[in-house]
Specification:
By secondary structure, the chain is of the alpha/beta class. It is 36% helix and 26% strand. The longest helix has 25 residues. Bound molecules: zinc ion (2 copies). Keywords: Hydrolase, Manganese, Metal-binding. Pfam families: M20_dimer, Peptidase_M20. Belongs to the peptidase M20 family.
Amino acid sequence: MREEKILKKAAEIENRIIEIRHQIHQNPELSFAEKETANLAADEMKKLGFKVEENIFGTGVCASFLNSDSDDAKTLLIRADMDALPVEEKNDLDYKSKNKGVMHACGHDGHTAILIGTAMVLKELAAEFNGNLKFIFQPGEETSGGAEGMIKAGVLEDPKVDAAMGLHLWGSTEEGIVEYKSGPLMASPDRFNLKIIGKGGHAARPHNTIDPIPIAAQIISSLQNIVSRRIDPLESAVISVGKIEAGQTHNVIPDEVEIKATVRSLKKDIREKLAEYVESVIKNICEIYGAEYELEYIFGYPAVINDPKMTDIIKKAAQKILGKEKVRKKEKAEMGGEDFSYFGREVPAVFYYLGIAPQGEIVNHHQSDFKFNDSVLKTGVAVMAQAALDYFEA
Ligand SMILES: [Zn+2]
Ligand SMILES: [Zn+2]
């Protein structure tokens, strides 16, 4: 059976993949500074005989393996992100981070190791498929994103990519479980910076000022009404104000208030409406009280939307490798963002989760005690390799 062969190959390379993960974990690098990580990935892919391009949009690596003579062979892209976070690791591990204040607290060390492992397995099974592979090691997922830049630099061309896959190790899913979901999986994380400009003065003489603080208070409560009153209750939207700053002391009305907020949604039309409503609330409330405003509204990554056919490939591949009971349909999307979405905007794509939570626990991403067991790496490799082979046969 094909899946037994894949599992055997994955088991054979497991120790090496664990070593690679530990090496990356010990030497975490922040977004767009993933130099050593990129070098390591590029070296491993070169050793496997892949054609490797480096320094794409910063530290990005694209490794291709053309395994077909036919001109109309399909090309599958598989992506991993490489960046770590500005977090001080609190875990007591023998492969604990050596870079002070920097930590792989989202599992991207695992993603990179899994992608290298997938390449090792697929290379050995080259005789069993007909098609081209492109492995993308991407910078900057945690900040402004490397996917869009790598696409603009041409990674979807020559040979032209037909489909894309990626995974995230996931802390709220039980260890070893694969979760899949067709359609929207993750949100578009937009944000805005707002400055409400009033006129400061003596706090005992408010009528001689334009007090931006009550204006800010009204704006913040009206922003909540956008989600509850203007968006269809069966759709998803979040507006959260994460920062508000103004003033110095009791008896002085300040000139300005600064607000920072995140605005998230799963669908393009809702996303556009939210941006329009947010500005309308700010503009109108400021106008009532004679205040001015400066609004910088920043559209972040698009939502991750999974292609139904690609999702089905992952579901069935995972079932072959893990058995049906370890593969679950995810009912609800997540309101977190992921720049894998840029690949999905260009070609049919699927992003899925591989659980890392020990039974009865939740592992929190981006925290100093984030960790996962090495045993999930082999599972990640086997599922991804099976899915790639199934894709070429679909
Ligand atoms: Zn993260
Ligand atoms: Zn992540």
